[in-house]
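Q: what does this look like with nicotinamide-adenine-dinucleotide bound?
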Amino acid sequence: MRFDNKIVVVTGAGSGIGEAAARRFSSEGATVLLVARSEEKLAKVAGSLPADRTQWMTADLSTEDGAKAVAAKVQGLGGADVLVNNAGIAVGGTIEEVSVEDWNTQIQTNLTGYFMVTKFLWDQLKAKKGNVVMTSSVSGLGGDWGMFAYNASKGGVTNLVRALALDGAKLGVRVNAVNPALTKSDMTKDMLENEALMAKFRERQPLEAPADPAGVAAAMAFLASDDARLITGVNLPVDGGVMASNGQPPQ
Ligand SMILES: NC(=O)c1ccc[n+]([C@@H]2O[C@H](COP(=O)([O-])OP(=O)(O)OC[C@H]3O[C@@H](n4cnc5c(N)ncnc54)[C@H](O)[C@@H]3O)[C@@H](O)[C@H]2O)c1
């Protein structure tokens, strides 16, 4: 019960890693505000959590209005102790294929969105001596084939975390990221159905591929808890060993 009497905001909580995070923080006593785009999915997840400690709202976090609405809502609940920046999309394709519009949507959602929600919650986090956990990716620590826009967005998160951690330290606010590899979610649904592709992932992701989102949520809860009070500015691979490899193929 590390989050008893704590208020935790989880963005992208309608499915996948965000849903698992909302469930994990809730199971450890938190009051959780779940945010995402789809009312239907959010209502379903929120409806399965304790009614007296669960709030939800839809918002488009790629917009300033959406990010500000989240800050206002959580202020009304008493202010955020923990912000889990997790909402994201993945734009695939090579530089020939990705339009400027798609690039902008990718960066606006995955990078500017994280910046805006953090910015508008920052005063609350300072007041609570709280912390931020961002869902980055192994794709923020190295490149993927045909995913450069996503890689750029998550690469931006890598240094967003480091630099905000430096500024936040003197204010009592910690900032960290988890960097998952392939994890079961709506985002990866099509990939998961491709057995030949999954065999390739199992070669490169030694512990578990695709990963259970609950395993990612467990690492998030650790980083957000007092157990991690000396940890800030970290991009933590939660990747079943992917980043342990130097990139050479298995023999
Ligand atoms: N699944 C993976 O393999 C994997 C690996 C590494 C990192 N990630 C990251 O994990 C995070 C969660 O993704 P997931 O895999 O659980 O996918 P998902 O599609 O199941 O969940 C994404 C969530 O983000 C929300 N969202 C997207 N755009 C939004 C917007 N503009 N405003 C508000 N909410 C928005 C969706 O509503 C949904 O709730 C993402 O940041 C993703 O990049 C996923």
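The chain has a mean pLDDT of 98. The first strand starts at residue 7 and ends at 11.
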